[in-house]
Amino acid sequence: MTLPAAASLFLLRLADGRVWEAVEFSDGFVCVYHPDEFTLCTIATSVEALLSGRRPNDPLHGAMIIPYEGVDS
Description:
Layout lengths: L7 E6 L5 E6 L5 E5 L5 E5 L2 H5 L12 E4 L6
Antiparallel strand pairs: 1-2, 1-5, 2-3, 3-4
């Protein structure tokens, strides 16, 4: 049995300065955690689908992807 590639962590810097954590799975599926809203996530089929077509009042409108550097141990 072949294991899938590891998921890739990344951050989204929102236009208002907040930062949300996200993960992209090996098949392109994306999950973004909303820390301001308990137990809420945005799910998309790809990063492109996540960010495309967002209206100005949507928190993800204008969001920038930031590579996740991890935490110093």
